[in-house]
């Protein structure tokens, strides 16, 4: 950057004062910068020298930069859910309310929600609106103070918590030698062989030695998310409850997961601040080029229920216009705050 700035200054001064020496100096420096200077080192590790390193005639001094081929696009395939054997709702919430103690205010109130096979349910709301409490009721971590939550007798539920990364880090601290592969091997308890586990982890972006040799404590946040998803997918769930799953993930993986969730035959309950992700996974509004696969065409033949709810002060209401309506509400709220 310093050399480039000096070249520009010399060239500008030379042209302004018709100083050919400064112009020649600037051109000479530019040629060196383009052709010889840089971070290159010779075969023995010393500073690169043209006459020493490149004997003979060459069209240029610098070697070509090897540009790696375009990386293979990320593709996520969700496992087909097993047969339920008899029909019925997967999850059913009826007039459910919850408070932490009789003296504390209600966290969520009179919630009614039904999730069936193939449904896409999105939940939007500001922090503190009761989203996490609702999720805990759905997955059975807590029971409602009033009302009821019932599940299908054969339901396999996959739950990704917003604290999943921290939980995996804690497991890694307890067992410093724990890897993604050894963790899944322990989880499946013989239900899948090593080859099947490696295939699952590889598809989610944890291939080869990353899965088997690198301890969980050394994995990045995005790699821990992939490990957490693998722990869900091997069980072939009927319903996925995902709480802020896109945190830590790169754009390519988020896009692949968005497409996979939109096309999947199972049910999805999604809580996320990522409105673009919600539009695709829940509403099915895919970008151009995302829905051109045969799987997408087949999915369109079977209409699915897609609904987005808003939680505010513990009360849940349907957003008839989905994510767009939520954005409009937030824009009006922001405008009022700015005008106040």
Name the poorly predicted regions.
292-301
Based on CA atoms alone, the radius of gyration comes out at: 28 Å
- N-to-C series of helices and strands: HHHEEEHEEHHHHHEHEHHEEH
Which structural category do the helix and sheet elements fall into?
alpha/beta
Total helix count? 13
**Which bin fits the share of residues in helices?**
40-55%
Give a verbal description of the structure.
The chain has helices at 2-17, 20-35, 50-53, 131-138, 164-174, 180-188, 194-203, 208-212, 221-233, 251-263, 275-281, 294-301, 322-339; strands at 91-98, 108-115, 120-124, 146-151, 157-160, 239-243, 267-271, 306-312, 315-318. Residues 292-301 have low confidence and may be disordered. The two termini are 47 Å apart. The strands form two sheets. It has a six-stranded mixed sheet, with helices on both faces. A three-stranded antiparallel sheet has the order 2-1-4. The protein is of the alpha/beta class.
